[in-house]
């Protein structure tokens, strides 16, 4: 089983936890244990669902932004192609006018 690496935030939290005294940690645990909200599994389920929704929303927004960036890039390329085509048509008309015997 692969070993899980810790994020920087987790490492920082662990270091901060190490700096606390046992009495401070026990007091924090006692306060959390006395609050019935934190003992209710539905509370944690809601928190997990909220977190998942936030992640899904962020991913969706990222995809929309990536699509918008790609769309603007394609629109720019299309505008460049149209401009090049217009220049080529103008040059062709100029060459046709400059030819002897042209109408």
In summary, what is this structure?
About 85% of the residues lie in helices and about 0% in strands.
Largest sheet entry = none
Large-scale geometry:
rod-shaped
Could you tell me the radius of gyration in angstroms?
A: 32 Å
| Range of helix content | over 70%
Give the mean pLDDT: 83
**SSE ordering:** HHHH
Task: Name the structural class.
Answer: mainly alpha
Q: Give the number of helices.
A: 4
Tell me how many strands there are: 0
Distance between the termini: 82 Å
β-sheet strand percentage: under 5%
Poorly predicted runs: none
Describe the structure.
The chain has 103 residues and is an all-alpha fold. It has a domain at 40-103. It has helices spanning 8-18, 22-34, 36-39, 41-98. The longest helix has 58 residues, at 41-98. The protein starts with 7 loop residues before the first helix and ends in a 5-residue tail after the last helix. The mean pLDDT is 83.
């Amino acid at each position: 089983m692969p070993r899980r690496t810790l994020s920087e935030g987790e490492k920082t939290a662990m270091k901060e936890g190490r700096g606390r005294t046992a009495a401070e940690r026990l007091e924090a645990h006692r306060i959390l244990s006395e609050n019935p909200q934190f003992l209710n599994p539905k509370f944690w389920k809601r928190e997990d669902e909220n977190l998942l929704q936030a992640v899904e929303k962020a991913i969706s927004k990222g995809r929309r932004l990536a699509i918008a960036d790609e769309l603007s890039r394609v629109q720019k390329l299309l505008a460049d192609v149209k401009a090049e085509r217009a220049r080529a048509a103008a040059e062709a008309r100029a060459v046709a006018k400059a030819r002897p015997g042209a109408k």
